[in-house]
């Protein structure tokens, strides 16, 4: 099909340009946000029709001595379709162009007007130029070239039919002006379409970037949680394997049941390791150190202070030991504090920061990180101490544990991150 399209002669491509309008019947400026802007093309077209129609009829009757009924028909056919040009400029051009050509032959056969412009009257030129504007803003370049060449060809035919007729220079004028308007409007439209496509592409890219960030963060959380789940599966395996040795009087049926449990746990652990290999398909190496928890928040705050952020921590000593926290909540709490402090380092360097971690009697762990306005924003640190994607990672961790997250700016220019996590997850 592509080869056949390349072999198609230029004239065939040109003829194909005189097809349906590319805009599907949408009016000029139809997508404008302001209502009055959408009505501007209709107002201009109506003003042109109201002006050109009576003037054309009067000039044809009194100057060119055309029959009144014929002049009325020509004037209507040459002016009224300008209203159609607002939404269907190519169809309007077909009507107006046919009427203009017919009018040229009528003027050629008329008794008077040998010294007047011919074959196009000044009214035809005005209406035709408006039509060129509408075409240039709506139709394909192939159609515009066809319209322009057809205009020039019609003028050339009239010059050949009656070369001695005075006033024929208007054909050159109309040919040149129509070409200029078609070129300018097509260029402006092309630039507008390019800008629109750029905005659409940027919107799509931003959405894809957000989606990719979310997926990367979920993958990273899954990799971290693998160690937590793998630990529990390993404990189940060891307990099931050692049960016959720890309980000598265990019945044979129970021994088989424990053996089945151990085999299932080992199989599940192998499947998790294969899943982890998929999650690490980007070539990243697994972390060798144990996953951090609340017991390392103090070290995290001290590292933030060394990075230039005056931070203080309010947390009961041994909170992770005194309150029974599931491994998922313990890890999520640490990561939330880590990401919040990383955002302070990146976006509010030098801002006084307060970190509070406490547990209430209802089984909730409350995390609050509040920073004041930045002292210096001219050279924020880009690195920080976090490893995730800021608020995206926080939301995912809170959603994972069934908690809640509240973030937002403060009236004084600071920022607040408040998270509430259940000390025990629903499945722990």
Q: Which helices and strands, and how do they pair?
A:
Layout: H1 2-7, H2 10-16, H3 35-62, H4 68-79, H5 89-109, H6 122-138, H7 141-161, H8 169-246, H9 252-279, H10 297-306, E1 311-315, H11 319-322, H12 327-347, E2 353-359, E3 364-371, H13 391-401, E4 404-409, E5 415-422
Parallel strand pairs: 1-2
Antiparallel strand pairs: 2-3, 3-5, 4-5
GO molecular function, one term: kinase activity
Catalytic activity: ATP + protein L-histidine = ADP + protein N-phospho-L-histidine
Transmembrane segments: 39-60, 66-85, 92-110, 116-136, 143-161, 167-188
Describe what you observe in this structure:
The protein has three domains: 2-167, no CATH class; 213-279; 294-422, Heat Shock Protein 90, CATH 3.30.565.10. Helices cover 62% and strands 8% of the residues. It has helices spanning 2-7, 10-16, 35-62, 68-79, 89-109, 122-138, 141-161, 169-246, 252-279, 297-306, 319-322, 327-347, 391-401; strands at residues 311-315, 353-359, 364-371, 404-409, 415-422. α7 runs antiparallel to α8 (169-246). It is elongated. Mean pLDDT is 80; it is low at 1-23 and 377-388.
């Amino acid at each position: 099909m592509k080869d056949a399209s390349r072999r198609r002669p230029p004239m065939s491509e040109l003829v194909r340009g005189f097809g349906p309008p590319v805009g599907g019947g949408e009016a000029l400026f139809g997508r404008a946000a302001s209502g009055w802007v959408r009505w501007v093309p209709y107002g201009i077209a109506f003003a042109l029709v109201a002006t050109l129609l009576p003037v054309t009829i009067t000039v044809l009757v009194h100057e060119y001595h055309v029959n009144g009924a014929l002049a009325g028909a020509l004037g209507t056919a040459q002016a009224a379709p300008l209203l159609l040009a607002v939404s269907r400029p190519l169809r309007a051009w077909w009507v107006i162009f046919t009427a203009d050509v017919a009018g040229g032959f009528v003027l050629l056969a008329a008794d008077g007007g040998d010294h007047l412009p011919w074959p196009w009257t000044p009214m035809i030129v005005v209406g035709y130029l408006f039509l060129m504007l509408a075409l240039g803003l709506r139709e394909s370049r192939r159609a515009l070239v066809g319209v322009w060449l057809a205009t020039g060809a019609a003028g050339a035919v009239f010059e050949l039919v009656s070369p001695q007729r005075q006033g024929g220079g208007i054909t050159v004028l109309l040919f040149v002006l129509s070409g200029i308007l078609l070129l300018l409007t097509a260029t402006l439209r092309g630039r507008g379409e390019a800008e629109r496509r750029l905005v659409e592409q940027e919107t799509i890219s931003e959405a894809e970037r957000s989606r990719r960030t979310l997926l990367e963060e979920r993958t990273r959380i899954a990799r971290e949680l693998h160690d937590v789940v793998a630990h529990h599966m390993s404990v189940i395996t060891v307990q099931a394997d050692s049960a016959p040795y720890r309980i000598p009087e265990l019945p044979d049926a129970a021994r088989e049941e424990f053996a089945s449990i151990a085999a299932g746990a080992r199989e599940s652990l192998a499947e998790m390791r294969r899943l982890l290999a998929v999650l690490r398909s980007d070539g990243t190496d697994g972390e060798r150190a144990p996953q951090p928890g609340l017991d390392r928040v103090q070290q995290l705050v001290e590292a933030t202070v060394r990075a230039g952020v005056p931070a203080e921590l309010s947390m009961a000593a041994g909170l992770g030991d005194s309150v029974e926290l599931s491994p998922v909540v313990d890890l999520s709490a640490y990561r939330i504090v880590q990401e919040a402090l990383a955002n302070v380092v990146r976006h509010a360097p030098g801002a006084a920061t307060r970190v509070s971690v406490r547990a209430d009697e209802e089984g909730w762990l409350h995390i609050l990180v509040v920073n004041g306005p930045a002292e210096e924003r001219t050279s924020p640190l880009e690195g920080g101490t976090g490893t995730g994607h800021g608020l995206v990672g926080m939301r995912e961790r809170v959603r994972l544990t069934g908690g809640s997250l509240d973030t937002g700016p403060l009236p004084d220019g600071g920022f607040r991150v408040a998270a509430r996590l259940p000390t025990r997850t629903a499945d722990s």
